Amino acid sequence: IPRTKEGGLPTLAWLLMVVHVCSLPETHERAIAGGQRPMAALLESLAAFFRHYAGLRQLDGVLRFSADGSTSEFRKPSGEAAPALVVLDPTREGAESLNLAPRLPPATQLLLAYELRRASQRL
After folding, report:
1. Strand 61-65, strand 85-87: pairing
2. pLDDT higher at 55 or 114
3. What is the mean pLDDT of residues 20-25?
4. Which pTM was predicted?
5. Quick check: 87 and 19 in contact, CB under 8 A?
């Protein structure tokens, strides 16, 4: 997976994406159903992250957190424009909101989708 200076996503954007997926109700349900052992639940949550973003159009949308950080939402775009991932900085609101994810070229999006799918299959 390319690092930030090689055209990839910054670590903070990845962390916010992980927090979003781990806070989803379906992730909680699968982690609990997967076993009572903490490591089994952790591995299930990690697998859920990889599954969630593994598709070609899964890195297309806007990830936004509430002002208090207690909830998050990933909105898919309504149009058929080129895929674009936006991860809004949760510490800024309104006109000051800042996208933490740089524009990803199509080749990088394809590479990320492939690597996320591969990681998902190995867990």
Report:
1. parallel
2. 114
3. 91
4. 0.81
5. no
Please list, in sequence order, all residues whose beta carbon lies within 8 angstroms of the beta carbon of residue 29, skipping any fewer than 6 positions away.
none
Q: Is 57 exposed, middle or buried (0-12, 13-18, 19+ CB in 10 A)?
A: exposed
Positive or negative torsion for Cα 99, 10, 65, 115:
positive
| AA identity, residue 34 | G
Distance CA 80, CA 48 (A): 26
**Which residue in the block uniquely carries the two structure tokens 């909101």?**
97
3-state SS class at 68: coil
Beta carbons of 122 and 46 less than 8 angstroms apart: no
Q: Under a CB-based contact definition with an 8 Å cutoff, are residues 86 and 73 in contact?
A: no
At 10, list the tokens: 């910054």
Dihedral angle, C-alpha 5, 123, 74, 112, nearest 10 °: 30
Instruction: For strands 61-65 and 72-75, give the pairing.
Output: antiparallel
Q: Which two tokens stand for residue 86?
A: 């936006």
| Rounded Cα gap, residues 81 and 98, in angstroms | 21
